[in-house]
Design a protein that fits this description.
Layout (H helix, E strand, L loop, with lengths): L5 E3 L11 H7 L4 E3 L8 H8 L4 E4 L8 H6 L5 E4 L9 H6 L3 E3 L6 H16 L2 H9 L15 E5 L3 H12 L3 E5 L5 H6 L3 E2 L2 H7 L2 E4 L13 H4 L7 E4 L8 H9 L5 E4 L20 E3 L8 H19 L10
Parallel strand pairs: 1-2, 1-3, 3-4, 4-5, 6-7, 6-9, 7-8, 9-10, 10-11, 11-12
């Protein structure tokens, strides 16, 4: 595939345009980078990919559907920035002869650190206290100490394992659950294998680090929130659709769960008019920035281009479809 035509249809907000990774991609052929919103619309995504042989997918709100693969007949590869593949119809990609690759582990440390930051921020009620201080108040509200608490980790990939490690480092007992039932990996993390219901009943902090697949969609809903401690805190840095957002908002409103910190949402960017958490003071919200560190971004930019080069040279790596 000499002189590949490469499309980056969803660089909004921009993180790729004008970077060293962009310059490396240009050496492989013509590169078209779109830095405007709109890639969440199928017809617009098709227009942006057009005749490209390769698409670098940066944002999860760009959905590579059957319709996209059918319309973009020249497309041979999708190189994903990150690990999530829930926005790509992998079966459709395979039917249309499109290879899909991702970048496993590239942002594990960054996202795990963000999960820890959200945990401490929520437990200490820092946003609310900061707001009151700026209003001239001197709040003396009781906050939560993390030492000695139980951390429940759902998902034990690179991010989940690092979250568990950080939790142990600050004195937490760690329970973990693996979709594949990988108890050996859990034990190697210094955690105790536990069932889903055990974690929900026992954990003081629940961290979601799962891939979004049909089996994990709405992984936490009304039934699950009926099992949690009233003092529990939920941290979600994985995918918004792992949680029934309406059920979570209701649980937070009646204090069935003490707090939540969310970096991901069912719809992104999060529309203000559909933000169920906007008026809740026991929620910390960040705009899917867990992986947005200088260190992670440097490697994140490089790996999708590495994957394209490997594909062109005939030894594709980090494949997520057959």
């Amino acid at each position: 595939m000499a002189d590949a035509l490469i499309s980056v249809p969803d660089d909004f907000p921009t993180v790729f345009d004008g970077t060293p990774a962009h310059a490396r991609a240009k050496k492989l052929g013509e590169v078209k980078v779109v830095t405007a919103a709109g890639a969440n619309q199928e017809d617009e995504l098709i227009r942006r990919i057009d005749r490209a042989h390769v698409a670098i997918n940066i944002r999860a709100h760009a959905h590579f559907t059957e319709g996209v693969f059918a319309a973009c007949r020249n497309l041979k590869m999708v190189s994903i920035w990150g690990t999530g593949t829930d926005n790509v119809d992998l079966a459709a990609a395979g039917r249309h002869g499109v290879t899909v690759c991702n970048t496993p582990g590239v942002n594990a440390n960054a996202v795990a650190e963000h999960a820890l930051a959200l945990m401490l921020t929520t437990a200490r009620k820092i946003p609310r206290i900061d707001h009151e201080m700026r209003e001239g108040k001197w709040p003396r509200e009781m906050v939560t100490q993390i030492l000695g608490k139980t951390l429940g980790v759902f998902g034990v990939g690179g991010i989940g394992a690092r979250v568990a490690e950080l939790g142990r480092a600050i004195g937490m007992t760690v329970l973990a659950w693996s979709l594949q039932g990988d108890t050996k990996r859990i034990a190697a993390m210094g955690a105790r294998p536990a069932s889903k219901d055990e974690i929900l009943r026992e954990a003081d902090v629940i961290s979601l680090n799962l891939r979004l697949i049909p089996e994990t969609r709405a992984f936490l809903g009304r039934k699950e929130f009926s099992l949690t401690k009233r003092t529990a805190i939920l941290i979600n840095t994985a995918r918004g659709a792992l949680v029934d957002e309406s059920a979570l908002a209701d649980a937070l409103r009646v204090q069935k769960i003490a707090g939540a910190a969310l970096d991901v949402y069912t719809e992104e960017p999060l529309p203000p008019e559909r933000n169920l958490f906007r008026d809740l003071t026991n929620v910390v919200l960040t705009p899917h920035i867990g992986a947005v560190t200088r260190e992670a971004n440097t490697r994140s930019r490089a790996m999708p281009v590495d994957n394209i080069i490997a594909y062109i040279e005939g030894h594709p790596q980090h494949l997520v479809n057959k």
